Automatic annotation (TrEMBL):
Family: Belongs to the glycosyl hydrolase 76 family.
Cited Pfam families: Glyco_hydro_76
UniProt-recorded name of the protein: mannan endo-1,6-alpha-mannosidase
Signal peptide: 1-17
Gene source species: Mytilinidion resinicola
Annotated keywords: Glycoprotein, Glycosidase, Hydrolase, Signal
EC code(s) of this entry: 3.2.1.101
Amino acid sequence: MWTQSLTLVLAALACKATSFSLDATSSPSIKTGSADFARSLASMCPAGLLPAPAYWWESANSLSALVSYQHNTGDASYEHIVLAGILSQATSANDFMMQGVGVANDDQAWWGRLAMSAAEYKISDPPAGQPKWVDFATNVYNEQKGRWDTTRCKGGMKWKINPNENGYDYKSTIATAGYFELAARLALYNKDQAASEIADAAYDWLVSVGLIDVQTFAVFDGTDDSKGSGCIDVNHNEWSYNIATVMYGSAVMASQTGDHKWVDRVNGFLGHIKDTFTLNGNLYEPFCEKGNNCDLDQQSFKAVLASLLAKTAAILPETADTVASILTPAANTMAGDFSDSVGFGDKMTTLESVSGLLVLPKGKKRAIRFFA
């Protein structure tokens, strides 16, 4: 429980995690490795936030990895960290619009998506009198719905919220994709047709401006809405967290609507992920790893990919074989290369990859239930 003794938890965190010879066919082996990797990650954020120079959104994703770990393994040792971390950043409006951290639409969405995961995976809600996890996610969704910008390019989410900030003119794929995914998840969770329609429209907008290539299923980074008639050029950089977010939102839409077009889209994204974001059996970020120049943000993108690969297979069992062909060798490689000295991005990626193996469906059986 989240009220457990902090002393006991800190004692557990003192254990050192090192390289691990993973047996990806053995649940006990996966759980043992996952426990080591979770301890190592949690030791970096005992109060719920990563230390500088980590960016604010990365703290949300470190907590998301611990939420995944708890759900995948049943070990609630770090539930109190998740509770403390989310509540410390929620603000009095319960919307994660923190002052002093330069909140952008994608930043807010990461925290909203974390709260949504806590709701889906039945992490203990905050104490009586405070909102439930789904309420935090709904607040973010409703605020972002009001920021859907039709003044340029007929829609899309701007990267920045403040018109005076650099990046306000950038229609960002990750901001739009995060909104799409959150809408899809709330549609499924609440059986909300209006949210489903909003998710559908957000996906269509990404296609309409060329941020999703419907032939190759490449997902590009964004487009400038200030040039010419708006969104006339596309930033063709590809990052794993963009395609992962669109893929998982599509998987949720497939489950929520029963429309096979979403299954086809998920399979398309999986094929492109396998072709572009894997190398020699490991997850790979080609736009920065090729030159060995990934910055702090980019070092954590593959954690999102690993997490959403597992979640996609869990909610859409027909994709399990393809996901396993990507995630299993990556988990083996990262477990073998792990040490406490790796950065938080590698810690998150390893934890999400290894613990995610536990929720891959066997045959056509759905491996998890998100809700009661």
